[in-house]
Amino acid sequence: MSKVGDVEVSDEQVREANRANWDERAPLHAASASYDLAQYAADSSKLSSVVTDDREPLARALGRDPESRLPLEGLDLLHLQCHIGTDTLSLARLGARVTGADFSTASLAAARRLFDSAGAEGTFIETDVQHAGDNVPGRFDVVYTSIGTVTWFRDLDAWARSIATLLRPGGTFYIRDGHPAMFALDDERTDGELVVRYRALADGTSEAWDDEDTYASDDKLTNVRTYDWPHPISEIITALIGAGLTITGMAEGIHLPWEALPQMVLRSDGGAYELPEHQRLLVPLTYTITAQR
């Protein structure tokens, strides 16, 4: 991945570039061994590694038993930035009535095919998350988003307002994502040192990147340009509070579902990556925030 620079860019340019990138990624991911969509159709108990890790903290935030077979039973759940639907299907298998939302047409088409192949019920809506409150009908007991989310858009206040709009009174918002401290580290350094290279704080400009690789496939992309924004945790929490939500919990974690740094090793259960033991407690890799309307 090559950083082009910190740039001023319009929301329209961002949507066009990022959507083209994710529309191209979606069929590659759907066909990849990494996502292994056929296994979801063949095994009705199959859960994604992301939802496997989120299951316990999400259930506890909802006052549900995480050991229950269906800890989300009876709940209407909206999955923002659902991509090709593996996490959405996993949430449905925990008992939720699911709606997935994403701005990528190709991702939603792959998600619908996955649900059809698995014989599962779900609704999918095309929208960017900053405007989901205007485009997704209904209200939900849970709004969920996890891994690879808030860096993709500029306006956290609009995002948080959409979440508040989409939650029923008493409803719960759950997010787990890559930690800003982790995203600031040099991901191309080969000597195993943890060295800060990128911004962790926002200044209004976007970070522009050119990258022909995608994390779940060896195929090369042609729509290589993407834009994202660093958002510190303080900004995320302030946006949620400003939208009228009450923060009910926060945690920081040491596992990621992708190999973000060259020295990372696969966790013993094969579900996630972590830093080598001598670095494991030096920097958080994820954060989790729960909030309630």
Q: How would you portray this structure in words?
A:
With 293 residues, this protein is α/β, with parallel strands linked by helices. It has a single domain (2-292), classed as Vaccinia Virus protein VP39 (Rossmann fold). The protein contains 9 helices and 12 strands. The mean pLDDT is 95. Residues 78-173 form the Methyltransferase type domain. One of its GO terms (molecular function) is methyltransferase activity.
List keywords for this structure.
single chain; alpha/beta; Rossmann fold; three-stranded antiparallel β-sheet; 9 helices; 12 strands; 23% strand; methyltransferase; SAM-dependent_MTases_sf; Class I SAM-dependent methyltransferase; Methyltransf_12; methyltransferase activity
What kind of oligomer do you see?
A: single chain
Shape assignment: globular
Number of helices: 9
For the residues shown, what is the average pLDDT? 95
Q: How many domains make up the coordinates? A: 1
Task: Tell me the number of strands.
Answer: 12
